[in-house]
Amino acid sequence: MKTKNAAALFVSFKTSRAIPCARPFRRDFMIQSTLDAGVRAIEYHPMVVLDDHVIRTDAIVVDRDDGRYAIDFVDARPLEDPRAEGLLQIGFEQRCSGIIAVTAADVGLEPRLSAARQVWFHAGMTVTADDRAEVLDALDREGPVPLRSLQALAATRRDPAQVVYALACEGSVSVDLRAGLDGRAIVRGGSLGLGGLRYGT
Q1: How far is it, in rounded angstroms, from Cα 137 to Cα 195?
Q2: Which residue spans within the chain are E strands per DSSP?
Q3: Global pTM?
Q4: Which of 45-54, 74-83, 171-180 is predicted with the least confidence, judged by mean pLDDT?
C-alpha cells in the first residue's frame, strides 16, 4: 500500500511539495518539465474557490523562462471542473501568462518521451564525489559538449552517460532531449540552458 501511494506522487528539485500523479501521462509531463532547462519550477494547486464553492482543480503551474503557465490536461480534467473554469481562476490568481492545453498525445511524442524516461530512471542514483567532479569540471572547462564527448573528457568510474543522467535529475546539469539520447545530445552544466521540451508553442 505504501509503495502504491509513493508511486502516485511526484517529487523533483523543481517541485516545492509532492504532487499527485496517478495518471502516467501526467507523471511523464512532470518528468519532461523537470528535465527541461527552460522550466524553473513546477507548482501544484489542488483547488480553488469560485463563487463561494471549492472546486477541485489538481492544477499544475509551470514557471518557464518565457512566463508562468497553468496546464490544462485536456484528457484528464477533474469531473468537478469539466470546462476548466477553476483552472482559469488559478491562472488569474497565480498571474499566469496563459493556459497551455496538453494532451496525452503531446506528452507521448518521441523521441522525447523515451529519452526523458531513460534519464529519469537514474533519479536517486548515488553519484560519487569523484564522478561528480569529473563531469562538472569537464563541463566547466569545455562548456556545452555532446554526450559522446564526455567519455574522453571525464574519467568516471561509472558510465559517464549514467552519471550525466543522475546529475540531470538533480539539476546539476541539463541535457537537450529534443533529438533523443544519441551521442549528439548536448550536455551543459547547471539546470539552465537551452529549453526544448515545449508545449503550446
Answers
A1: 22
A2: 9-10, 19-20, 39-50, 53-64, 67-73, 98-102, 145-146, 173-175, 186-189
A3: 0.88
A4: 74-83
E-state strands within 51-176:
53-64, 67-73, 98-102, 145-146, 173-175
Q: Which residue has the higher pLDDT, 80 or 63?
A: 63
Return the exposure string of 124-143: e unless at least 16 CB atoms fall within 10 Å of the residue's CB, then b.
eeebeeebbebbbebbeeee
Amino acid at 35: L
Rounded CA separation 17/10 (Å): 8
Quote the cell numbers at residue 64: 518557464
Cα 128 to the center of its chain, rounded Å? 24
Q: Which residue has cell 508553442? A: 201
Say which residues have a Cβ less than 8 Å from residue 181's Cβ, sequence separation at least 6.
111, 114, 115, 118, 119, 147, 161, 175
Cβ-contact 168, 161 below 8 angstroms: no
